Amino acid sequence: MKKLSRCAAGACTILAAIASQPAFAQNQSPTGESVKGVLRFSTGINYSKGDYGEVTATKVVSTPVSLKYSKDNFSIRVSVPYVRIDGPGSLIQTPEGRDSGGGGGRTDNSGPGSANSGSGSSGSGDVEVDDSGGVPVSTRRSGFGDVVIAGTYSFDLGNDFFIDATGKVKVPTASKSKRLGTGKVDVTAALDLVKEFGPTTLYVHGRRKFAGNSTAVPVRDTWGAGAGASVRAGNGVTLGADYDWQQSSIAGNKASSEVTGWASFRLAKGFNMSVFGSTGLNNNSTGFAGGLSLSIRLN
Questions:
Q1: Contact 287/30 with Cβ under 8 angstroms?
Q2: Contacts of 217 (CB under 8 A, 6+ apart)
Q3: Per-residue pLDDT tens for 229-277?
Q4: Neighbouring C-beta atoms of residue 57, cutoff 10 Å
Q5: Exposed, middle or buried by CB within 10 Å (0-12, 13-18, 19+), for 31?
Q6: How far is Cα 198 from Cα 67, in angstroms, rounded to an integer?
Q7: Cα(51)–Cα(86) distance, rounded to whole angstroms?
Q8: What is the value of pTM for the model shown?
Q9: How far is CA 231 from CA 3, 4, 15, 200, 228, in A?
Q10: CATH domain 23-297 topology
């Protein structure tokens, strides 16, 4: 599978990739024979803060955990985050809850996109009330998010041009009582077009999310798109920038529009670290999001 050198701006829940040759080429011997697949474990921590059209800000801290197996031109990843949210906004409005990015082409590291649960919180969870007036003063809830399973097949078109096709399923494991999930299965289909120019990689991305029908949590199907570039700076360092746009899952709300800068470092053989920072371009986007991820090869 082609390792996309990008870090989509929302999805805190996938941070960045090491820009290199296609993964299916890495999984072949010099004679072209296929070798064993690669298994990687990733984790990290992400933070975001934004008002998303509300009067007060909503803050989210998430810790994603994922396993990814890659062999030849196919990969599959299973991930789940632990999420803490504080504020009046819905989790689905935040980078941790949105379905940004294709999922498969993002690689060995837990990106903002891969960190996200794909969960859809419909609003407040546990509410603290001011005894003097009965006025809600804060909203807090925490717990494990939804499990996400993503598979990607990469088509090598030659001349360093690739198409990655990704299918992603959100398994509704998040607590409905805490309003960390919709309790419904979501399915996302995505395509990434990738072109390498020596040490530079460019990509464009499109996706369609089909949200599970829920009367309790009224969400809708959404479109998303993005683009970005990265440069291998040498000594295991890759630098990149991305733009991501996604329709709001809540009818009537503006689409999110966010930009991200990121850097990925090879700390040792099979051990990578990534950092990122994002900001939104409208009031339905995050004010700030940032995080760090660590990825280690297990075989």
A1: no
A2: 120, 121, 122, 182, 183, 184
A3: 999 998 899 999 999 999 988 888 889 999 999 999 999 999 999 999 9
A4: 17
A5: exposed
A6: 29
A7: 11
A8: 0.79
A9: 13, 11, 15, 5, 11
A10: Porin (2.40.160)
CA distances from 236 to 20, 74, 104, 263, 274 (A): 10, 24, 21, 10, 11
Q: Output the 3-class SS for 181-227.
A: CCCCCEEEEEEEEEEEECCEEEEEEEEEEECCCCCCCCCCCEEEEEE
What region does 53 belong to: left with phi over 0, alpha with psi -120 to 50, or beta? left
Q: Identify any residues that bridge with 77 across adjacent strands, giving them in sequence order.
A: 68, 150
As beta bridge partners, residue 237 has: 234, 265
- Report the amino acid identity of residue 152: T
pLDDT in tens, 127-157: 333 344 444 444 788 999 999 999 999 999 9
Residue 254 CA to its chain's centroid (Å): 20
Please say whether the beta carbons of 140 and 171 come within 8 A.
Answer: no
Q: Give dist(CA 75, CA 58) in Å, integer.
A: 34
Q: Which residues pair with 44 in a beta bridge?
A: 293
Domain boundary assignment for the chain: 23-297
208 Cβ neighbours under 8 A, 6+ residues apart: 188, 189, 190, 221, 222, 223, 224
Name the residue with tokens 């670290």: 273
How far is C-alpha 262 from the chain's CA centre?
13
Structure tokens at 16: 């960045």
